[in-house]
Automatic annotation (TrEMBL):
Pfam family membership, one: DUF3800
Taxonomy, superkingdom: Bacteria
Family annotation (InterPro entries): DUF3800 (IPR024524)
Protein name: DUF3800 domain-containing protein
Length: 387
């Protein structure tokens, strides 16, 4: 006779309605409701970020990038054999990775002609590129601002919350270990109600000690905001959480992309933990369950393309993240012809994809980082207020 457990039905899946989960403006955005097959890989996946006595478990804070290529319905990648030949990939190589094209830091990678061959092939293919670019540091600290502006008496700060988050990130970035140690002392992100005032006073004191002279109006506003917030009744996103856990996992970003492109099919590189989490949900577009799958990259060349692209994008965004705008422009001015050409190809790829559908490009980073990238990659003016 079967055991009782053998007769139990699998747990009922939680239904996620894509139309409710995704941003409302996507309903009217060009390309967002078209049909694609999106292929994904990721880079800098630290799996989990948590506080320790001396800081965080991973203090590199490299940007997490989830991205790849999007093929419009009916399109295919052609010329793959010619690409492999041009890249001098041996026939015995089971899958293509960034290391087969270039190794080293971002500037060394940009200097490799094979990167240009790959980007030019991709630019002339029917594929678009797509990515989520996540600043791990920024994502792990922004709940403080969001918790305060959620209170009725601070609603008037809603319009400038992105500027407040940007200034918080700008200061913390200079000494993330010190800030993480402060958070640890308050069992963040699980602040006891009776310690709210002490916590906010400590955060404000830390920020002022690191940056006594505000660089702009937004920084002045951050200090005033925290001074007023010391009397907040609650910090809604910083209670009833597990102590010390800043990022449990990245599954929400996978959900975000599946729901953003609700009429598409999604193919991810194997990521066992994320796959197990997503199995808990039925992700639906009306009565239709949105198809997604996880595959070994060896079995699908499009995922291998996503791997190379994500590796390059991860190098790019961390290069931008880790340098000031002045340093970036000086470095760029010293690029050789190959580096300039490859950077231009990357810019064209992003522009091509953004023109087709702005939702292909998703940045969850600070205003500083976005503006630096706009100037470094797209040659747009850098705002004086951020200098």
């Amino acid at each position: 006779m079967p055991k009782t457990s053998d007769l139990e039905s699998p747990p009922e899946r939680l239904i996620i309605d894509a139309a409710s989960f995704r941003s409302p403006e996507l309903e009217f955005m060009r390309g967002a409701n078209d049909e694609y097959i999106l292929y994904y890989d990721e880079t800098n996946n630290i799996r989990k970020l948590y506080l320790k006595e001396n800081g965080a478990n991973d203090e590199e804070y490299k940007n997490f990038v989830l991205g790849g290529i999007a093929l419009p319905k009916g399109s295919t990648l052609s010329g793959t054999d010619e690409l492999k030949k041009a890249l001098q990939i041996q026939k015995t190589t089971k899958e293509i990775k960034l290391e087969h094209l270039a190794k080293g830091d971002y500037e060394k990678i940009l200097a490799q002609p094979k990167i240009g061959i790959f980007l030019d092939w991709l630019l002339n293919s029917p594929a678009y590129i797509h990515y989520t670019n996540l600043s791990i540091l920024n994502w792990s600290i922004l709940d403080l601002v969001e918790s305060i502006v959620a209170e009725d008496e601070f609603k008037h700060y809603l319009m400038m919350q992105w500027d407040l988050k940007n200034e918080l990130h700008h200061i913390v970035k200079a000494d993330p270990r010190g800030y993480m140690q402060l958070l640890k002392s308050f069992s963040y992100p699980n602040i006891a109600h009776e310690r709210i005032q002490e916590f906010i006073d400590s955060v404000r004191g830390y920020l002022i000690s690191k940056n006594p002279t505000p660089r702009n109006i937004a920084c002045h506003a951050l200090y005033a905001f925290l001074q007023q917030a010391r009397n907040a009744k609650d910090l809604v996103f910083l209670v009833d959480n597990e102590n010390d856990i800043l990022i449990e996992d990245f599954h929400v970003f996978y959900l975000n992309r599946i729901c953003a492109f609700k009429n598409s099919q999604h193919v991810f590189d194997n990521e066992r933990k994320i796959e197990q989490i997503l199995k808990r949900y039925k992700i639906a577009n009306g009565n239709r369950e949105i198809p997604y799958s996880f595959f070994d990259s060896e079995s699908d060349f499009a995922i291998q393309v996503a791997d190379v692209l994500c590796g390059l994008l991860g190098k790019h965004f961390n290069f931008v993240e880790n340098h000031s705008i002045h340093e970036l422009l000086v470095r760029k001015s010293n690029f050789n012809e190959t580096q300039r050409s490859n950077l231009k190809l990357l810019e064209k790829l992003i522009d091509k994809s953004d023109d087709a559908c702005p939702a292909f490009i998703f940045n969850s980073t600070s205003i500083d980082s976005i503006q630096k990238n706009q100037t470094f990659l797209h040659n747009l003016p850098y705002p004086m207020v951020l200098q």
